[in-house]
Design a protein that fits this description.
By secondary structure, the protein is of the alpha+beta class. It contains two helices and three strands, in the order βαββα. Helices cover about 40% and strands about 30% of the residues. It has a three-stranded antiparallel β-sheet. The longest helix is centred in the N-terminal third of the chain and has 13 residues.
Length: about 60
């Protein structure tokens, strides 16, 4: 099952985060949110904890 870990305000930011997470070995999907022009970042539930740790380090640089 895929789980949303982040909602990006732009496609450009979503693509950057996806690249970084993929480089770290995570499977990542990006899809446009149904209601707005935001983008959902999804990872497999089994990778959730590790992906969140990496995401936090990406966002706080």
């Amino acid at each position: 099952m895929w789980t949303v870990i982040y909602i990006s305000p732009s496609v450009k930011m979503a693509e950057k985060i996806q690249e970084r997470l993929t480089a770290e070995g995570f499977l990542v999907k990006v899809k446009q949110a149904a209601v707005s022009k935001q983008y959902e970042m999804l990872v497999p539930e089994s990778e959730l904890d590790e992906a969140l740790e990496v995401l936090n380090s990406i966002l706080h640089r």
